[in-house]
Design a protein that fits this description.
There is one protein chain. Helix content is 50%, strand content 11%. The chain is an alpha/beta fold and 594 residues long. A hairpin with a 4-residue loop joins strand 1 and strand 2. The radius of gyration is 31 Å and the shape is elongated. The chain binds adenosine-5'-triphosphate (ATP). The site of adenosine-5'-triphosphate (ATP) has 12 residues, from strand 2 and helix 1. Adenosine-5'-triphosphate binds next to strand 2 and helix 1. Its main location: membrane. Belongs to the ABC transporter superfamily. ABCG family. Eye pigment precursor importer (TC 3.A.1.204) subfamily. This is ABC transporter domain-containing protein.
């Protein structure tokens, strides 16, 4: 194995696929809604390495579903058999062999082409592969996919075709034996589509099994494929070499007119309004009863297995250790966060600006016994700001990243735990930075008591609220789609605000609502920050008027019903809620990748 500055001779995975692969599947059935809706019915077939295969069919025929099932990304509601070289494989090992490029691949927007591929190499290749080798492989992939000109461009600035090629490149890094692509040409012009499919053909020629869903391919594009698999209404309507397609259709009396695009003809025949339903049924029956080429022999004897892949999970799961996964993901997330305008610049400017505004409006009230009520409203406002300013940027950016997480997790790149930890850790410096800026500006401008321990307590409470907001935002972003999470997250925070003790005091609450104050994060934070300002035997406040009722801090605490409160209870309450949220976030991530 070479070192970083070792010899130039490296193994380029693109050239390294030598053994042949046959992916065979038989009697695959896929149903949803507790089995009430059948999407794939008894589909069988085989794909061979060295050949480029297309899955075609009308819209809603089940092409993407077939691809999801064959790639092992979807195993719920699936019955049937999948064998690789006539061997059954367990799910984990299968996912290591297979790369799946879904229709709309999400890329991390602020990461450049080269960085995206290097991170993919770090996550998908064993740690034994040196940095030098990884860089060489990434450069080879960039050259192969024609991405040299945009190698240093962030993914968000790439054209549609470049994004597609980059997403293909990510899959190439691990040198998979079997590759699936769902409509890699969608949204591209004919020239770019031709280019992409030509790349796929190169990948197949290098010894891989490459299968792609294509939507209405032109004649030129179709010619690039060696094999065709036609899906109609969840059933197979043709499988085999492209050249044999017209003859097979002609056998049942379906004649493709001369000069007619064969793909258009096939899709027309496969559509629900086909004028020759009897002939179509005959064709489907022929396909159903045809033996699977080079695949299953008599292993499945026609009875669908309850699970298409073996359940047992192999022990060596990930290409790299959990610590490495954590380090790589934290670096990548941190880089993405630093370059994200909303998560950094806007967040910092927001904290500084609002600190200045609050400081100006509530100028020098902190030590004035005549303005205690106003100061208490400042404390509540500060807490509200910290929570909303730290949860909303996360809510707005995180859902987009969820699909990256799901895809990479299913490609066996890392565990849920390492992803979860890296997410929290990578966003932490931004959150603490923002909260600290706001705290310093607002604390001094509002004239809060200048005692380091009280200032530290106030800051500690603010950081805990920032932490809470960050995890709450992640949770909202992971549970709900981007269309609803910006509404749900703030709305669900409001009950906690209501039971904070600021808007209505504990004694005034109906007995039914009193327990809710014990789970209100704002109650603990409000009590903690108020205690830091007025507790711990604070000396008398100044008084700017003739008489100040709240000159004695003890009276303020009595008014707030906090004379017997202990700040450690508030710290414990906040900690408990934050830990509970982390557990919920972890469970929601696990649920997401089921
Ligand atoms: N989870 C699901 N619940 C209910 N119906 C589903 C589900 N997944 C797929 N379907 C239905 O199954 C059928 C096949 O869907 P699929 O996405 O596989 O079609 P497709 O051939 O890829 O279509 P298109 O070319 O338009 O993308 C569609 O009618 C779709 O509505």
């Amino acid at each position: 194995m070479g070192t970083d500055d070792g010899p130039a001779e490296v193994t380029i995975p693109l050239m390294d696929v030598s053994s042949s692969t046959v992916l065979a599947f038989q009697n695959l059935n896929y149903s949803v809604q507790q089995g009430s809706k059948c999407i794939l019915q008894d589909v069988s077939g085989a794909f061979h390495s060295g050949r480029l295969a297309a899955i075609i069919g009308p819209s809603g025929a089940g092409k993407s579903s077939l691809m999801n099932v064959l790639s092992g990304f979807n195993v719920k509601g699936v019955r049937g058999t999948i064998l690789v070289n006539n061997e059954s494989v367990d799910r984990q090992r299968y996912r290591q062999m297979v790369a799946y490029n879904p229709q709309d691949v999400t890329l991390l927007p602020t990461i450049t082409v080269t960085e995206t591929l290097l991170y993919a190499a770090d996550l998908r290749m064993p740690s034994s592969v040196s940095k030098f080798q990884k860089i060489k492989i990434v450069n080879d992939i960039i050259a192969l996919l024609g991405l040299e000109k945009c190698a240093k461009t962030q993914a968000r600035l790439l054209s549609g075709g470049e994004k597609k090629r980059l997403s293909i490149g990510q899959e190439l890094v691990s040198n998979p034996r079997i590759m699936f692509f769902d409509e890699p040409t969608s949204g591209l012009d004919s020239e770019s589509s031709y280019q992409i499919v030509s790349y796929l053909k190169d990948l197949a020629r290098q010894g891989r099994c490459v299968v792609s869903v294509v939507h209405q391919p032109s004649s030129d594009l179709l010619e690039l494929f060696d094999d065709i698999y036609v899906v109609a209404d969840g059933q197979c309507m043709y499988k085999g070499p492209l050249d044999m397609l017209p003859a097979t259709y002609a056998d049942v009396g379906l004649i493709c007119p001369q000069y007619y695009n064969r793909a258009d003809f096939v899709i027309k025949m496969a559509s629900k309004n086909c004028p020759e339903p009897d002939k179509i049924q005959k064709l489907k029956f022929q396909m159903k009863t045809a033996p699977v080429q080079n695949g299953l022999n008599d292993r499945s004897n026609g009875t669908p297995k309850p699970n298409m892949l073996d359940e047992c999970e192999s022990r060596s799961q990930y290409p790299t250790s959990q610590w490495n996964q954590f380090a790589i993901l934290t670096r990548r997330t941190f880089l993405g966060t630093v370059r994200n305008f909303t998560l950094t610049v806007l967040r910092f400017i927001g904290h500084i600006l609002f600190g200045l505004i609050v400081g100006t409006v509530y100028y020098n009230i902190g030590d004035d016994g005549a303005k205690v009520i106003t100061n208490i409203s400042f404390i509540m406002l500060a807490l509200l700001f910290i929570v909303f300013a730290n949860s909303m940027p996360v809510v707005l950016t995180y859902p987009l990243e969820m699909s990256v997480f799901v895809r990479e997790y299913k490609s066996n790149c890392y565990s849920v735990g390492t992803y979860f930890l890296s997410k929290i850790v990578a966003d932490f410096p931004m959150m603490i930075g923002g909260v600290t800026c706001f705290h310093i500006i607002a604390y001094y401008m509002t004239g809060q008591i200048n005692e380091p321990d009280r200032m530290l307590m106030f800051w500690g409470m603010a950081v805990m609220m920032g932490w809470y907001a960050q995890v709450y935002g992640f949770l909202g972003g992971s549970l709900f789609p981007i269309e609803v999470s910006p509404f749900i997250v703030p709305i669900t925070l409001l009950p906690a605000v209501l039971f904070s003790g600021f808007f209505i005091q504990y004694d005034e609450l109906h007995d039914v609502f009193k327990p809710l104050t014990y789970v209100s994060v704002f109650r603990f934070a409000f009590e903690g920050t108020s205690m830091s300002a007025y507790g711990f035997g604070r000396k008398d406040l100044d008084c700017s008027e003739m008489f100040c009722y709240y000159r004695k801090a003890k009276k303020v605490l009595e008014m707030l019903d906090m004379e017997n409160s202990c700040i450690w209870v508030d710290v414990a309450g906040l900690t408990f809620i934050i830990v509970a949220l982390h557990i919920l976030l972890y469970v929601s991530l696990r649920f997401k990748v089921r």
